[in-house]
Inverse folding.
């Protein structure tokens, strides 16, 4: 399980999505923890190249 680097809380939904950007590798999603830390996540496209 991923944890917040600042407060140690689990990084699972529900979390606040700050922004979402589509890239050639997948969707880059920036999320905000309850403590205010922002974390980028790359959600890769499956099966597409």
């Amino acid at each position: 399980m991923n944890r917040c680097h600042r407060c140690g809380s689990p990084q699972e939904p529900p979390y606040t999505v700050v922004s979402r950007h589509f890239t050639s590798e997948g969707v880059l999603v920036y999320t905000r923890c309850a403590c205010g830390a922002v974390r980028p996540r790359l959600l890769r496209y499956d099966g597409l190249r």
In short: Residues 1-49 form one domain. DSSP finds no helices and three strands in the chain.
